[in-house]
Every structure is written in C-alpha cells, then in structure tokens.
Amino acid sequence: MDILILYYSRTGNTESLARQAARGVEQVDGAQARLRRIPCPDGQQPADGDPEVSIDDLRECRGLLLGSPTYFGGMASAVKRFLEDTSGLWFRGELTGRPAGVFTSTGSMHGGQETTLLSMIVPLIHHGMLITGIPYQQPELAHTQTGGTPYGASHTANDHPRLSRDERELTRALGARVATIAGQLN
Ligand SMILES: Cc1cc2nc3c(=O)[nH]c(=O)nc-3n(C[C@H](O)[C@H](O)[C@H](O)COP(=O)(O)O)c2cc1C
C-alpha cells in the first residue's frame, strides 16, 4: 500500500518535513512512502531530488500527505496550480474516501501556519478526501515551542533552521496516522 508524500519546496524546509512524514508512514506495517515533488514554476530543479509527481501517483496511492511552504499566509501557487490539474480525478471521484494530511514550513512562528494548512485542506475536501489532523493525544502537541499544530505538521524555519524534536515527532505521527487509516479503509 503506497502513501503519496507530495511536496513543493524551494529551500529544503518543506522537503525535510516530507522526509519525516515518510518515516512515519513506513512505521506502519504494509505501508510504503512514495515521495514526489511538485516542480518549480521557473524550471529550476535539484539534480538529485525526488521524482516529479504525475497524476498517476495520486491515482495509485491509498493516502496523501501534501506539503507546501507558507507564502503570504497560504499555499504556494505551484501547489495550487498542481491541484488545479487534478480536476479529472475530481470529476471521476477517484480520491473520494482516501485519507489525507497536510504540512507546511513558515519563516516565522506566527507567519500563517494554520491558515496555510487550512488553505490546503479545502481542495482536498472538494476531492472527498478524509482529512486527518494530529490529535492532542500526541504529547508534543501540548508543549511544542516550535511548529506542530492540530491541523497538520509544521516547521518554523527562521529561528530553528533544522526541524526541532517536537516538529519531527509530530510530522512522523501525522504520516503514521494517514497510513494507519488508509490500511483500515483498504
Ligand atoms: C514568496 C514568499 C512568501 C513567504 N511568505 C511567508 C509568510 O507569509 N509567512 C512566513 O512565516 N514565511 C513566509 N515565507 C518564508 C517561507 O515560508 C519559509 O522560508 C519556508 O520555510 C520555505 O520553505 P521551503 O524551504 O520548503 O521552500 C515566504 C517566502 C516566500 C519566498
């Protein structure tokens, strides 16, 4: 059972979250993480990055973790643009009933993590996906001084260029949660 970890990242922070989400997915028996990136609009790509996403990746995976940097309090336009290319899947209801979670990286603590996560959730709801956040039973959620929200995983990059321990744990928990639910629905 493949779980798609789909992300856009220009300076590597959202990609770091994607790798933690993948580790969480792979903690779940029978689940494999499929890491894919959304291409940069200017065509500049890392030579050794994850493969570029195709629509078939979405079609084939049993769950989705979607990540974007926060740009002006919302998802990056490249992510929105990619989602607009998924209208064929929407029309045929191909993602309906599959679990999904979201993650983001901001520069600053109050720079719009929750608004970005919510902006990403909206189109996934239109697709009929089952949105899962991070429940407060996950202990790091109550005491994190960095990223991590009930709406999804996050990272605050300016003060802490590397992911904090809480950010790593919460992102892995989200990955494991999506994979676990996908397995139960399968
Ligand atoms: C066009 C643009 C808009 C941004 N807007 C915000 C913002 O609204 N709030 C914030 O905290 N950081 C903002 N940032 C900073 C990025 O969210 C932050 O550097 C993020 O970690 C980048 O992720 P990446 O390394 O995956 O590309 C912005 C950066 C750019 C380039």
Keywords:
single chain, 186 residues, alpha/beta, Rossmann fold, 7-stranded mixed sheet, binds flavin mononucleotide
What would you say this structure looks like, in words?
With 186 residues, the chain is α/β, with parallel strands linked by helices. It has a single domain (2-185), classed as Rossmann fold, CATH 3.40.50. Helix content is 39%, strand content 20%. Strands 1, 2, 3, 4, 5, 6 and 7 form a seven-stranded mixed beta sheet that branches. The longest helix is centred in the C-terminal third of the chain and has 21 residues, at 165-185. The chain is globular. It binds flavin mononucleotide (FMN). Flavin mononucleotide binds next to helix 1, strand 3 and strand 5. It comes from Guyparkeria halophila.
Write the layout of secondary structure elements.
Layout: E1 2-7, H1 13-26, E2 32-37, H2 55-60, E3 63-71, E4 74-75, H3 77-84, H4 87-92, E5 99-106, H5 113-126, E6 130-131, H6 140-143, E7 153-156, H7 165-185
Helix pairs in contact: 1-7
The structure holds flavin mononucleotide.
In brief:
The protein has helices at 13-26, 55-60, 77-84, 87-92, 113-126, 140-143, 165-185, and strands at residues 2-7, 32-37, 63-71, 74-75, 99-106, 130-131, 153-156. The protein is an alpha/beta fold and 186 residues long.
> By helix and strand content, what is the structural category?
alpha/beta
| Major sheet attributes | 7 strands, mixed
* Structural domains: how many: 1
- Spatial extent as radius of gyration: 15 Å
Shape: globular
Domain Flavodoxin-like: 3-179
Family: Belongs to the WrbA family.
GO molecular function, one term: NAD(P)H dehydrogenase (quinone) activity
Pfam families: FMN_red
